[in-house]
Structures are given as structure tokens and as C-alpha cells.
């Protein structure tokens, strides 16, 4: 059965992608957000975020009338009998997940739900939160209605959110109510994605375990990369060689300056917080975090070692967003790198294809934002690759190196073509976990 009536709370990456994709497979979706500016933009069929493919589907599904937007909870809830919560669960000071947006969402629901409903929690929440929310909701319900809860964590990645939603590896449905579980399976069935049915607590844990495992895989390969530098091995070949083993797999073995973004940093810390709260030591997670933090400092350390005092040196920074194909700056490694460089009194000129506007809000005016890689490179003592945008791989490095004061590149993402760089004449190229390429004038 298609054409279910669904309300989605929150139009961030998750809410918006979910809402759009559910409309795309035939449901009637209303998305609600408390942020009036976002909703106004969405009503004009413009995406408030940079996410490939999202705006096309937004326009398509808005024009069929299957996808609408509102800031009014009563209006949206009047429309729906499946309510998906996709509000943010940021990190609070002690590492714990901040549930205040969820608590407010539960209050909004309690006030305005007028019919029996299934409430689906898509936000990433610590184990036990679904039960807590249910109690909160039931305790404040204004109308006499029946509420069933389903935990349905999300696994999309920014930059490929739409494809990840339409072609997910799996859909996790955690519920103790067979009817609710069946209805949510029906909702997703047109996607033709495998379901894993489980209890609520296990569903909540699957999300944290998945993110923590992937983050740990990244820290592991970064640890190996640092060792490779010490022993003269090449981490790209090592990761390749490991990845052929099906038990290991090649994904998430890309060494570099560590993981950032709106999820891995906060979710690993939230899981660690749970382990401490329960008195179950999980020092592996501490190490995952420590390696990640260290990795972001290493790049600046390498520049200090090569250039000496950074005071007055000019650094060109290519890339600001936490990964390519997004303008999201949450926990982007560029933030720490920009702060460390400017603390050492280096002058930083940064270029990013889409994230400069958001970067200004986070990093501020301690660095200069320019409109091209070439402009950033002018007069630079070194160039840092911080985000592996495809645009940077395609750069004319000969021209870029020619405008630099010193022909030195630190590639924090191992994304440049070494052979092509060697064609550019004298160069010093320092990747992560691989031997440096040093071609002097008389080589
Ligand atoms: N970003 C990702 O790639 C991703 C992927 C998987 C899971 N998650 C998880 O999904 C959740 C949402 O993440 P996000 O990145 O989409 O969040 P986000 O911060 O980008 O967006 C959340 C939205 O919710 C809105 N909101 C807050 N309170 C509300 C309320 N009471 N009613 C309606 N709207 C409200 C906010 O205004 C905001 O627009 C988080 O728990 C996150 O950990 C995120
Ligand atoms: O081999 C790798 C892979 C990733 N990264 C970095 O790890 C971070 C996260 O990358 P990615 O996982 O691609 O992006 P996210 O959009 O943050 O997605 C993650 O976080 C989401 C939110 O929970 C989950 O839904 C996704 O499944 C999970 O991949 C980025 O800084 C990447 O540069 C590496 O350093 N090496």
C-alpha cells in the first residue's frame, strides 16, 4: 500500500532526505520545522542545504503536491498518522547526547496529536531514549489517542543523502508492537531494501555501534599511516592490500586528517558516555577519539617541522567542509587546522567550492576567504589540502605552484596524483602515511 500520510519533524539532512524520498515513492508527506526561514525556502522549492540531487527531487515532488512544508505542528499533525522525528541530537558539554530538541518535539506532539499515530524516532538517540520519550509523550497527551513507537535509525551520509536513502543497505525497525512494525515496513517497502526487525534498545544501539565502528576503522588506519611514515611504508598500498580481504573490506580505510562531521565525533563520544555511565569500560573508543584529535594536529606539526617558525608564513588552505559534496562545517578538521595555524601567527587564505559562507560563521575572520585555489596559492609558503573535493584533483598544479612562494604541498587527504605532480618540476609533496616526493631544481 502506498499513499500513507506522513509528517516529518525537522528538515535537516535526515528529515528533508527522508521526507523527499517518501514522497518520491508515493506517500503524502508534510515536513515541519520550527525554523521559519528554512520552511519559507523549501516552500519556494529551494534547498536550504547543499546536497547533490536533493533540490531536483524537492521540485519534482513539491509540484505533484505529495510534498509540502509548514511551521505549524497542529496543521501537520492533523494531516498524518505516521510521525517521523528527525530533529537534532547534538553533543552536550560532557559528551552526552543533548535531548532537548527531542523533548520539545515530544511536547509539541503531545499537544497536537489528534488521532491514533505511530511515532518513528529517526534521530540518533542513546539506548533507552525511545522509552523515555514515550513516557514523556504519554504523560502530556492532550487528546485521548493511542501512540505506538518505532525506533528507525538513519544511516545516510551527507553528500550522498538521497542515494543513500533510496538505496539504503538496510532499514532497521525496532519495536515491541508487531502492528506498528508492519506498518512502517509497508511504508518503506517500495524502496526494496532489506529490513532488520529488532527490539527498540537494540535498534538504538545498532546506530551507535555502526558509527563507532566506522570511526574506529578510520582511526585504526590513521594509526597505521603514522607507523608507515616511521618505517617507510605506503599506507595507500597497505589499505588496498588489507581491503582485498573480504573480512576487512576496503571502505573507510582512507588515511588522512581524521573524521569530522555532524555524526562520528558526537556519536563516538555519546557511546563512550553511555559506557562510563553504565560502568562498562570501553577504552577502545577513547583511543579512537585520541588518534583522531592527534591526526588533525599532525598536519600543522609537519608544516612547522618543514617551514620552521610559522609566524608571518602564508598558508593556502584548500577545502573547509568536513568532507566533499557538502557545505557542512560541523566538527570539520579545517576548524582546528585554521585555529592552530593562526595561533602560530601564520596567514591563512582558504578556498572551498561551497563551504566558505558556513566557515565564516564557525572559524570567523582569523583567516581570509578567497574565490579560487589559484588566489589562495598566490605567494603561499605551503599549500594544505584539507578536503578532497574533485575540483582539487583536477587543478592545473603547474600554474598553482608557479604563483607560490615555496613549492610545498601538504596533502591531508592523500588525494592528489603523485605522478602528475612529479611532472610539474621542483616540488615537495607531503602526503599522510606515504613517502614524501621531493624533487629539487637540479633533480
Ligand atoms: N546529518 C547526517 O548525516 C545524519 C545521518 C544519520 C543520522 N543523523 C541523526 O539524525 C538527527 C538529525 O540530524 P540532522 O543532521 O538532519 O539535523 P539538523 O540539525 O541538520 O536538523 C534538525 C532540524 O530539526 C529542526 N527542529 C528542532 N526542533 C524541532 C521541533 N520541535 N519541531 C520541528 N523541527 C524541529 C531544526 O530547526 C533543524 O532544522 C540527529 O540525531 C543526527 O545525529 C544525522
Ligand atoms: O576512509 C575514510 C572515510 C571517511 N573519513 C572521514 O570521516 C568523516 C565522515 O565521513 P562519512 O561517513 O562519509 O560522512 P557522514 O555524512 O558523516 O556519515 C556518517 O555519519 C552519518 C550520521 O550518523 C551516518 O548516517 C553515516 O552512515 C556515516 O557514514 C569525514 O570527515 C570523512 O572525511 C575518513 O577520514 N576516512
Automatic annotation (TrEMBL):
Coiled coil: none annotated. GO terms for molecular function: NAD binding; UDP-glucose 6-dehydrogenase activity. The active site is at residue 263. Keywords: NAD, Oxidoreductase. It holds the Pfam family UDPG_MGDP_dh. GO terms for biological process: polysaccharide biosynthetic process; UDP-glucuronate biosynthetic process. NAD(+) binds at residues 33, 38, 89, 124, 266, 330. Residues 316-418 form the UDP-glucose/GDP-mannose dehydrogenase C-terminal domain. It catalyses: UDP-alpha-D-glucose + 2 NAD(+) + H2O = UDP-alpha-D-glucuronate + 2 NADH + 3 H(+). Substrate binds at residues 207, 252-256, 260, 323. Pathway: Nucleotide-sugar biosynthesis; UDP-alpha-D-glucuronate biosynthesis; UDP-alpha-D-glucuronate from UDP-alpha-D-glucose: step 1/1. It comes from the Bacteria. Its EC number is 1.1.1.22. The keyword Oxidoreductase applies. NCBIfam families: NDP-sugDHase. Belongs to the UDP-glucose/GDP-mannose dehydrogenase family. PANTHER family: UDP-GLUCOSE 6-DEHYDROGENASE TUAD (PTHR43750:SF3). This is UDP-glucose 6-dehydrogenase.
Amino acid at each position: 500500500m502506498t499513499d500513507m500520510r506522513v509528517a516529518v519533524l525537522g528538515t535537516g539532512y535526515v528529515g528533508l532526505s527522508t521526507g523527499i524520498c517518501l514522497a518520491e515513492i508515493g506517500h503524502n508527506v508534510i515536513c515541519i520545522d520550527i525554523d521559519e526561514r528554512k520552511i519559507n525556502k523549501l516552500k519556494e522549492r529551494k534547498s536550504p542545504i547543499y546536497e547533490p540531487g536533493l533540490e531536483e527531487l524537492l521540485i519534482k515532488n513539491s509540484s505533484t503536491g505529495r510534498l509540502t512544508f509548514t511551521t505549524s505542528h497542529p496543521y501537520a499533525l492533523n494531516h498524518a498518522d505516521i510521525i517521523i522525528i528527525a530533529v537534532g541530537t547534538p553533543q552536550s558539554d560532557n559528551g552526552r547526547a543533548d535531548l532537548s530538541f527531542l523533548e520539545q518535539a515530544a511536547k509539541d506532539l503531545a499537544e497536537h496529536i489528534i488521532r491514533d499515530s505511530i511515532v518513528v524516532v529517526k534521530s540518533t538517540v542513546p539506548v533507552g531514549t525511545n522509552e523515555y520519550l514515550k513516557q514523556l509523550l504519554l504523560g502530556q497527551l492532550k487528546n485521548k489517542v493511542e501512540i505506538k513507537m518505532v525506533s528507525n535509525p538513519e544511516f545516510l551520509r551527507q553528500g550522498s543523502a538521497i542515494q543513500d536513502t533510496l538505496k539504503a543497505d538496510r532499514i532497521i525497525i525496532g519495536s515491541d508492537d508487531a502492528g506498528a512494525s508492519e506498518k512502517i515496513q509497508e511504508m518503506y517497502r517500495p524502496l526494496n531494501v532489506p529490513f532488520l526487525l529488532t527490539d527498540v534498545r537494540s535498534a538504538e544501539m545498532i546506530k551507535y555501534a555502526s558509527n563507532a565502528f566506522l570511526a574506529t576503522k578510520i582511526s585504526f588506519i590513521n594509526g597505521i599511516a603514522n607507523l608507515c611514515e616511521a618505517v617507510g611504508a605506503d599506507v595507500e598500498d597497505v589499505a588496498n592490500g588489507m581491503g582485498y580481504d573480504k573480512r576487512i573490506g576496503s571502505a573507510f580505510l582512507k588515511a588522512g586528517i581524521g573524521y569530522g562531521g555532524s555524526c562520528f565525533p558526537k556519536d563516538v563520544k555519546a557511546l563512550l558516555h553511555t559506557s562510563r555511565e553504565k560502568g562498562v569500560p570501553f577504552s577502545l573508543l577513547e583511543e579512537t577519539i585520541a588518534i583522531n584529535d592527534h591526526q588533525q594536529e599532525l598536519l600543522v606539526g609537519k608544516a612547522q617541522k618543514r617551514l620552521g617558525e610559522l609566524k608571518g608564513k602564508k598558508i593556502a588552505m584548500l577545502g573547509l567542509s568536513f568532507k566533499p559534496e557538502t557545505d557542512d562545517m560541523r566538527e570539520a578538521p579545517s576548524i582546528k587546522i585554521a585555529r592552530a595555524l593562526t595561533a602560530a601567527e601564520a596567514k591563512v587564505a582558504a578556498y572551498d567550492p561551497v563551504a566558505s559562507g558556513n566557515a565564516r560563521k564557525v572559524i570567523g575572520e582569523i583567516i581570509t576567504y578567497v574565490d579560487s585555489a589559484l588566489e589562495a596559492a598566490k605567494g603561499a609558503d605551503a599549500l594544505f589540502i584539507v578536503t578532497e573535493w574533485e575540483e582539487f584533483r583536477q587543478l592545473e598544479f603547474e600554474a598553482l605552484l608557479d604563483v607560490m612562494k615555496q613549492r610545498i604541498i601538504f596533502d591531508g587527504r592523500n588525494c592528489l596524483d603523485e605522478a602528475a605532480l612529479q611532472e610539474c618540476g621542483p616540488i615537495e609533496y607531503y602526503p599522510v602515511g606515504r613517502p614524501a616526493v621531493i624533487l629539487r631544481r637540479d633533480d
